[in-house]
Amino acid sequence: MEFDSGSAELNQRIAEWLRWDKNEKTLEEVRELARRSEWKVLGDRLLQRLTFGTAGLRGVMQAGFNAMNDLVVIQSAQGLAKYLLQCYPSAEDRSRGVVLGYDGRYNSKRFAELSACVFLHENIPVWLYSRTVATPFVPFAVLELKCLAGIMVTASHNPKEDNGYKVYWTNSAQIIPPHDKNIQTSIMENLEPLESSWNLELLLSDKLNDPYDQMVELYFRKLQANVPQPFIRDYNAASPLRFVYSAMHGVGYPFVVKAFECARLPAVVAVPEQRDPDPEFRTVKFPNPEEGKSSLVLSMQLANETGCDVILANDPDADRLACAEKDAKGEWRVFSGNELGALLGWWAIRCYREQYPDRSLSDCYLIASTVSSKMCRSIANVDGLNFIETLTGFKWMGNKSVELLAQGKTVLFAFEEAIGFMFSPTVLDKDGVSAACHLATMACYLRATSNQSLADKLNELYDIYGFHCTLASYHFCYEPPVMERIFKRIRNMGPAGDAQQDENYPQTVGAGRFKIADVRDLTTGYDSSQPDGRAVLPTSKSSQMITFSFENGAVVTLRTSGTEPKIKYYAEMCAQPGQRDWNGSKATLREMVDCIVEELLQPKENNLTPRSD
């Protein structure tokens, strides 16, 4: 095929694609774009590559090196395979193999099978789940089968057009530096697909095994052991509570059913339209229960019809959990991730004390990401536990857990505000299946022992540990240069007299009413609260993240998303135990957030689209 884009580099990339791609659909896509001289589109798709971000690789399914497709998946698997052999060169290590899982999205199974063929060609055994699984079952299998690595093909709660590739290292936690960069380098050194990488007949190899039955049985045996047996016997089995459950068109339903059975919880009332995997996600605008009431419309209808007081919802790959509860007025309250984190953090301690009444809490840890509520820190301070804060993303919390466990410490609970919860280190990643089981058990326990709702218990925790109110939302920003410009402006908003300084952040918002005490910028590495002005947490120039600590106790973080075209903000007001003006704290925080959005993000000037719900 003859073509000339006017760019030697683009010509080369087009030629490579036409030579390498053996998927007729995506091959024809590039051919057609070249025939129509769509050079800008081809440049966008072929001159950049998908790189490992917060959640591994994630992108739209279409032709191009900057998207998810057969060729990019093969290249990624080839790079990962070569890197694993570099790190583990012995035949004995190689025999430990890798584990692969996939969700119910378009192409997920095919991407997993193509990846399996790459590893099998390298004589690396493969554990390939034979059917869709919840994401936690991949890191769980890495740990239990002592594999070299794990791959989950999923785009979690992204739109239906997307897919992704999440990688777990030998320690069963998601990859962090330097592995992510080293794998990317290895991919670039192994771009040309081997003929064998397209050969699905390799799936007949005796080095391919299905871990499904073994891992499912073991997972639920361990989950059952993590729920105190008296709670199962005395509260779950006899509870009058009923739970509506939504799988959000994903893979969670059979696993949540099994989890409830093993904990002797009442059977869930499943939303029928959303129960089974459907790559179209046809009943929701976004298949993300984090969106709140807009994603739970069918769940609320079913709960109202069936008299259920609690709704549990997973995202499509079942590693997140949302919860709503009906109040005394019959209104539905959707709990935030921070509220659920407070409840589950308390519950993790309660379960530990039940199972190990003679053990001290001094070696126990609660973990949260830096943009999540500080409520677990307050609980840890009062109850004598340890609290650790990490960067955003469960990859950091999982790896921190590995460190602590190696030191003989006990990790009780980790969470992030984006409704991700790790209840016990059985899985070193967020797990919406175990979280559903523990949250339902807590609800049954509270109803039986104190006739409390989840909301009642949350208020009691605020009384004991101090009221923590949070506001988190986002604006869509579809142009990366605009994001860059917004954060560059924030770094240069200080008084004109400070213009010669490298750090020139705003000192107040709200026309001087809300004074900023400290600024931490994890993009540049600046932290005004540290004696040397350098941040303690790891920094990254590839994403934007600035945290403002105010004199009135509020903390506000602005950051770009690693997986979506969003600028997110997270705000929290932390009151002392005994402070009772909760409404005043909420109103002040709301006012501060409005000021920050208008003054720092400037949504009108920058054409930002607010969250719809």
Report on this structure:
With 613 residues, the chain is an alpha/beta fold. It has three domains: 48-211, Alpha-D-Glucose-1,6-Bisphosphate, subunit A, domain 3 (Alpha-D-Glucose-1,6-Bisphosphate, Chain A, domain 3, 3-Layer(aba) Sandwich); 227-464, Alpha-D-Glucose-1,6-Bisphosphate, subunit A, domain 3 (Alpha-D-Glucose-1,6-Bisphosphate, Chain A, domain 3, 3-Layer(aba) Sandwich), CATH 3.40.120; 468-610, Alpha-D-phosphohexomutase, C-terminal domain (TATA-Binding Protein, 2-Layer Sandwich), CATH 3.30.310. 38% of the residues lie in helices and 18% in strands. It is built from 19 helices and 23 strands. Strands 16, 17, 18, 19, 20, 21, 22 and 23 form an eight-stranded antiparallel sheet that branches. A six-stranded mixed sheet has the order 1-5-4-2-3-6, with helices on both faces. A five-stranded mixed sheet has the order 8-7-9-10-11. The longest helix has 20 residues, at 582-601. It starts with 7 loop residues before the first helix and ends with a strand. The relative contact order is 0.08.
Attribute tags:
phosphoprotein, 3 domains, 19 helices, isomerase, 613 residues, TATA-Binding Protein, Alpha-D-phosphohexomutase_SF, single chain, Alpha-D-Glucose-1,6-Bisphosphate, Chain A, domain 3, six-stranded mixed beta sheet, magnesium, alpha/beta
